[in-house]
Write a structure and sequence with these properties.
With 176 residues, this protein is an alpha+beta fold. Helix 1 packs across helix 3. The longest helix has 15 residues. 23% of the residues are buried. It binds coenzyme A (COA). The site of coenzyme A has 19 residues, from strand 5, helix 4 and helix 5.
Length: 176
């Protein structure tokens, strides 16, 4: 689906551009960025595969995919609503702030609050789901700050560094 441009107080949340793929190549091999990802890449994908991915996102009928840009034009991350289920009015949320200079400055909190309002008020989504590895403290904090509640735990759900680890399930619903 075509992702609309959304403006928050400090960021422009816009559809992907081809140039974004070059940044993703650097984020994909940064161990600090990859550490809590479901399947850490730690390898550079050929740029043609990244371009293919942009095309797949644009054609995905069940998802919206955006880059996060500062108002002075720096591209610093991505955010998505995917696996949208129009019957149950649900969506999954994913976010990466790939420019580490911006970590701990409230970017994810502002962007998720903005995407949440867009989902509830414009897209008619009533519940947003998200998964986070138990040790991802910053992401758990972001969910707390944006009103998500932990409502489940998948024990031993993933393998990290040879060990089975837990994944927490978070959600937020706009109905009581
Ligand atoms: C997780 C992530 C999205 C957070 O983005 P962010 O813009 O830095 O988040 P915010 O600044 O809005 O909030 C982060 C909070 O965690 C806190 N924090 C960060 N590291 C911490 C740590 N080691 N221990 C305790 N708190 C920590 C920050 O202080 C901040 O809380 P505060 O506002 O109360 O001070 C970002 O670190 C990231 O993209 N990481 C790599 C990819 C990833 O893990 N994505 C999520 C997969 S589910």
């Amino acid at each position: 689906m075509k992702s609309p441009q959304i403006i928050s107080s400090n960021y422009i949340i816009r559809p992907f551009k081809k140039e974004d793929a070059l940044l993703w190549q650097t984020w994909d091999i940064d161990p600090e960025i990859q550490v809590y990802m479901p399947e850490p890449k730690n390898e550079v994908h050929d740029i043609s595969i990244q371009y293919e991915y942009i095309g797949e996102c644009e054609n995905d009928e069940d998802g919206y995919y955006w880059s996060i840009e500062t108002k002075d034009g720096a591209t610093i991350g991505t955010v998505s609503l995917f696996e949208i289920n129009p019957y149950h009015k649900t969506a999954d949320l994913g976010i990466v702030i790939g420019d580490k200079e911006y970590w701990g400055k409230g970017v994810a909190t502002e962007v998720i609050n903005t995407i949440k309002e867009h989902a509830f008020n414009t897209l008619g989504i009533e519940r947003i789901n998200a998964e986070v590895e138990e040790e991802n403290i910053p992401m758990k904090k972001v969910f707390e700050k944006t009103g998500f509640k932990q409502d489940g735990i998948f024990k031993n759900a993933r393998i990290k560094n040879g060990k089975r680890i837990n994944v927490l399930h978070f959600g937020i619903c706009n109905t009581k």
